[in-house]
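Quick one: structure for this chain?
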Amino acid sequence: MILGLLSRIRRIVAVGRSAPPVFLFLICLLAYANTLRNGFVFDDNTIIQRNPLVQSTGEFPKLLTTAYWSGEGRSNRLYRPLTLATFALNRMMGEAKAWGFHLANVLLHGAVAALLFILLHELFGLKEVALIAAALFAVHPIQTEAVAGLAGRGDLLSAFFVLLALWLDRRGGGRTPGGRSLSFSGSLFSFFLALLSKESAVAFPALLILTDRLAGRPESATRRRRAYELVATLGVLCLYLALRIRVLGALMEPGRIADVDNPLARLPSFQRVVNAVALLGKYLGLFLYPARLSADYSAPQIPPVGGLTDIRFLMGLAAVSLLTFLALRGWRRFPPLAWGIGFAGAAFILVSNLAFPIGTIFAERLLYLPAAGLCAAVGSVGALVATKRPRLVRTVLVALLAILFAATVRRGRDWRDDFSLFQSAARVSDRSAKVRYNLGNA
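Got it. Here's what it folds into:
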């Protein structure tokens, strides 16, 4: 069934502009249909079940002035009022049943995959690149943590609004100034909603500049007007940062990140960067070969890198160097490839532990938005090869999507309950103290 469905990709491309997004949306529903039977697991219990602010929509005003959660008795640096508001809406409409929350996540993921196709087609006009990228994004098992884990709602919302903001900016309202103003206002509003969903949306201004360089400015945006628009975008970012400081009391959380969550936080800056580069290699490895996935990688699962001669650092550095080389080669020769790599880098840099330590050493959900760029890069390479070997590429693509689809369905079952989740995690992260502790509790 899977092979028969996926083999129709080529035919669907030729049908029209609306068919591929609908197809991608349905593929997402099929891949994650089994998660509708799952319950509340892991962080879902703290963020949703035991959070008094999401028990009814009457608490909406408080969400704007409250931190995201206080799990494990500790405060946090997170501010995501829109994500919490969607949980409250879920509870109101679904009577606190877990399936309603899971359905919302699956629908959001389908919308993100469809929007990725629409955006890529808008930017470069290449249906094959857009469809390969969006199909990979839709069924890649590394996305399962963000989709099957209800606490991943912030990643889904933020990615949706970031892509929507980019698309609204590119639509540009045609050649009329009034239409341009309306479209760009919608882009700014979407950017603000993305920020209120998850902090990673801070990357949007960089993505806007990257897109301008590789796809050109929107048709109705003169150089001077574009400068004003970029200033307005930074203004929205400043408004968000001011609101965040007002609520949390600081831009970043005062205090110390727990060693068990991120042992890199206590390392000197140079050592942290060396370890972060090594972890980049691990992230790329999981993207290319997502065979062993885990809900947790906390200490002491990932031992610190020994130094610049450590094989993990050298592999990470080699991976980053290769991607940089490909981006530079594609900058003029094939912009979609450079855009995909640049998008992934810009979206990931703030959660990579490179610039500053974050609340976790490693998490698959952090790749949700960057994976859109990586999938675009893979789609670009696939489309280039397909010009010479179309039948071979089509066969390989269908087989690859079928394998990834099956892996995602299988991975979705791991998130059924706490016991099945941490039992699967223990097979991969067998040294993680949190995995052992949570498996014992379950």
